[in-house]
Specification:
Layout (H helix, E strand, L loop, with lengths): L10 E4 L5 H12 L3 E6 L3 H12 L5 E5 L5 H15 L2 E6 L16 H22 L3 E12 L11 H21 L5 E7 L14 H7 L8 H12 L10 E4 L6
Parallel strand pairs: 1-2, 1-4, 2-3, 4-5, 5-6, 6-7
Length: about 250
């Protein structure tokens, strides 16, 4: 059976693409025919490993260092991708950070919370605003959100949930603005996924497994499959939508 290459000729940018969901997404998009650029903050070695894996499939790939909390760096990242690859068709906003702080208790301080807002919300807004003028007709914008934006379920998640809920509202508005150019804007509301940031043997792992209907952690590749669908031609009439891939956490 021949490989499906419905994204042949497309160029995708995946922020936070050096590991976890971002790395799985970058590889999955390449397997479907796309050339892929990834943004990363600190994991240069892991980023280059993803680039090599993509190049082994015969697709073009490159990694760019950029802090998603800095709108100027985000704008430069998008511009570099267009300059080096010649176009941009798919933007995947995957970069994110998480900070836990129970209200009324001594926490991590406002600095950590401000950075979370700057990356999780500000980084998405900056990327969308930078990409919107250069995205090709029929382009795709996909943001990795969180099921905690709809139901926190655990203490200490108020600020994180707020950043992810805000992204949904922003994406729905952007979907309206960009629809005349055939550009779709959607959010994947991810559940507990086994990554470096949230390992299956972490202190809250048992509680997370118990909270969803499937009783397990998801795999990065399962989230990436949703991105591939939303990035492809079959999802051309899907915009302003929220796709839950959370093992039934919200069931």
């Amino acid at each position: 059976m021949e490989a499906t290459v419905e994204l042949e000729g497309r160029v995708a940018l995946v922020t936070g693409g050096s590991r976890g969901i971002g790395a799985a997404t970058a590889r999955a998009l390449a397997e479907r025919g796309a050339d892929v650029a990834i943004g990363y903050t600190a994991s240069a070695g892991k980023a280059e490993e993803v680039v090599r894996d993509i190049e082994d499939t015969g697709r073009r790939a490159a990694a760019y260092q950029a802090d998603q909390a800095d709108p100027a760096q985000v704008a430069k990242l998008v511009a570099r991708v267009v300059e080096d690859f010649g176009r941009l068709d798919v933007l995947v906003n995957n970069a994110g950070v998480i900070t836990h702080e129970v209200l009324g208790e001594d926490g991590t301080g406002t600095g950590a919370l401000e950075r979370m807002y700057d990356v999780n919300l500000g980084g998405v807004v900056a990327a969308v605003r930078s990409a919107a003028p250069v995205l090709a007709q029929g382009g795709r914008i996909i943001t990795i959100g969180s099921n905690l934006s709809a139901r926190t379920g655990f203490p200490g998640m108020a600020d994180y949930a707020a950043t992810k809920a805000a992204v949904i509202g922003y994406s729905k508005g952007a979907a309206r603005d960009l629809a005349p150019r055939g550009i779709t804007v959607n959010v994947i509301r991810s559940g507990s996924v086994a990554t470096d940031m949230n390992p299956e043997d972490g202190p809250s792992a048992d509680a997370q497994r118990a909270a969803n209907a499937m009783g397990r952690f998801g795999r990065p590749e399962e989230i990436a499959a949703g991105v591939v669908f939303l990035a492809g031609p079959s999802a051309s009439f899907v915009t302003g939508a929220v796709l839950d891939i959370d093992g039934g956490y919200l069931a």
